[in-house]
Amino acid sequence: MLTFLKRNKLFTFALGFVILQVLLALFAPLLGLQDPYYQVMVQRMKGPNALNWLGTDQLGRDVLARIIHGYRTSLMTCVTAVTLALVVGGTIGLLTAYYRGWFDRIVMRLMDIVFAFPILLLAIGVIAVLGPNIWSAAIAIAIVYTPIFARLLRGPALVICESEYVMGARAIGASDFRIIFLHLLPNLVSVVLVQTSILLSAAILVEASLSFLGLGAQPPTPSLGLMLSEGRNFLLLSPWPAVFAGFAILFLSFGFNLLGDALRDTLDPRLKTEN
Amino acid sequence: MTPRFLFSRRFDLAFVLFGVSIIVFLMIRMIPGDAVAIMLGANTEITPERIAELEARLGLNLPVYQQYGYWIWGVLHGDFGTSIWTGRPVIGEIAANIWPTLELTFLSILVGAGLSIPIGAFMASARGNVAEVIVRIGAIAGLTIPSFWLGIVAIFMVAKYAPGWSALGYVPFTEDPLGNLSRMVLPVIALSLPMLANLSRLVRSAMLDALGQDYIRTAKAKGANKRRIVYKHALRNALIPFITSVGVSAGYLLGGAIVIEQVFAIPGLGRLVLGAISERNYPLVQATILVLTGTFVIVNFLVDMLYAAIDPRVTR
Questions:
Q1: How many CB pairs (< 8 A) connect A and B?
Q2: Would the pLDDT of A204 be above 90?
Q3: Rounded CA gap, A68 and A64, in Å?
Q4: CA dist., res. B99 & res. A251, Å (int)
Q5: In sequence order, what are the residues at sequence separation of 6 or more whose Cβ sits closer than 8 angstroms to the Cβ of residue B236?
Q6: Which SS3 state, helix, strand or coil, does residue B77 take?
Q7: DSSP state of B78
């Protein structure tokens, strides 16, 4: 394991970077941070100092505490959304690849329709229906990513369906369920891991955009996108909240994207791209 | 292009547009709670007669398929419904706000796609360990920098170091060409960066692919110089996958434009649709999403056609 990590330096770095941020988010309440909701009006819009390492926002709240709790909000929303999309979209991809025929044609055509919408626009439409809050944002992201996962998994699943061991399993009379979940799925794990990581990175940006537009997390929830839109109004007085929130979004999204990229090289050297 | 290919692509286009219209149509009917009461607003007293009157006006008392029929008939004849607040056709409001969005998207595609070719080609010809690392990290960073954050930082920099530059808002090109373009510089940079990162990477790998082909060896053998090989022989062939990618990016840019408009106070469709959501002006939301998605679908159809014209192999 250790030699593996040593050999794949980029992967190790990406993994560490992501784990660090996830741990910060998970254990945010135990870190002894200040209360992200607590307002100290006399300490408004201060730059970084000994008491508030990253300064305070327009209501005198600690920016560091709000960013780390913002990580929580962002990760919770995006992980929920991407998991939902993976389960629904992934199942669709596997089933269509396995059964083919009219079932495949109809379902994938329906997926094409959802896929035809620009991502952010469809998310905005879903939120217009459900009302702006963080769970609508999660559902919107899940809906947007479902056809993407379906397409991503259908292709490789089709190839595996043609393989000899799947034919062999069929020949000895294994049930469809057994073939799909015991033979197809395990062989797709590397594709799933890589794509989940990369789509999670994109979902973080979508969630931040939605919250920035006022369609995701609502005040006073600590949210990275929201911090940017609030900080924007006080930019000339104090750029710190907006600057740090932006870096936080960038690090979170960058970490997952790099992890996916490095995973692709590590898990399957055959897939190693020229990029 | 074979007639069969043309037919099947047109059928796909019609099918997707039909599906999109159904989703957009049903959207407004899936709003939980009594949308009609919401639409009546807080200022009027909500009585059963008023609700019935509005329902009849919106055609909500008919069966769903008939409602869809009337709605799509109207849409095909340019009637996208009337705004709940102003009572005027929403298409007028969309037409009044569409130009900034189209200009922003178009310029961003131009900049993103235009710059990615020389950058990608350069990266491919300067292949090596350092270039490898720069491309990899640079591309991922470009893809994951929140473009709206980049916009905010740019506004801050301008306000601080170049206060004379009016970077916010929008003036029509026809009124003040210089003012229009100077206000477009920052939004276009912010919006096109992720696309630039993505496309440069694509051009680079397509170029490396093309550079390994037999015809390149032939060109080298007959003594063509390196520049000519890279820019004439390899680039032409590398452009084929590039074109499809530009079409797909158009959708990303239309979405991104909504956010960037909000950052730079540009009165485009993004501001219109966000305002409509907070006012619960559903016909306007519906029409804006339909117009933008329809544009995106048709652009991609045209890109497919272009692709087939350049590379006749795909039509077989």
A1: 142
A2: yes
A3: 6
A4: 34
A5: none
A6: coil
A7: T
Question: What phi and psi, each to the nearest 5 degrees, are found at residue A142?
Answer: -60, -45
Residues contacting A115, CB < 8 A, separation 6+: A147, A148, A151
Contacts of B237 by beta carbon, 8 Å cutoff, 6+ apart: B206, B210, B213
* CB contacts, 8 Å: B146 with chain A: 205, 208-209, 228, 246, 249-250, 253
Query: What is the token pair recorded at A3?
Result: 């030699």
- Integer Cα distance of A250 and A244 in angstroms: 10
Tokens 């015991």 appear where? A182
**Cβ contact, residue pair B24, A125, below 8 Å:** yes
DSSP symbol at A182: I
User: Contact A258/A17 with Cβ under 8 angstroms?
Assistant: yes
Please give the distance of CA A220 from its chain centroid, rounded to a whole number.
23
* DSSP SS3 for B84: coil
For chain B, give the number of residues: 316
Say if A212 is an interface residue toward chain B (CB within 8 Å). Answer: yes
Residue scoring higher pLDDT (A153 or B220): A153
What Rg do the C-alpha atoms of chain A give, in angstroms? 22
ipTM for the complex shown:
0.84
Q: Report helix, strand or coil for B79.
A: coil
**DSSP one-letter code for B229:** I
- Residue B133 — pLDDT band, cuts 50, 70, 90? confident
Q: How many CB atoms lie within 10 A of CB B117?
A: 18
- A223 neighbors A216 (Cβ within 8 angstroms): yes
Mean pLDDT of B151-168: 83
Backbone angles phi, psi at A32, to 5 degrees: 70, 30
Q: Is residue A130 a contact partner of residue A136, using CB atoms and an 8 Å limit? A: yes
Look at residues A80, A76, A77, A98 and name the one whose alpha carbon lies nearest to residue A88: A80
Residues B273-284 pLDDT 10s:
888 888 878 888
**Rounded CA separation A211/A141 (Å):** 12
Give me the residues of A, 252-271, that contact B with CB < 8 A: 253-254, 257-258, 261
Q: Do A116 and B140 touch (CB under 8 A)?
A: no
Q: Are A204 and A250 in contact (CB under 8 A)?
A: no
When the pLDDT of each residue in chain A is averaged and rounded to a whole number, the result is: 87
Chain B nearest-CA distance from A174, in A, is 37
CA pair distance B104, B186, nearest whole angstrom: 10
Residues in chain A: 275
pTM to 2 decimal places? 0.88
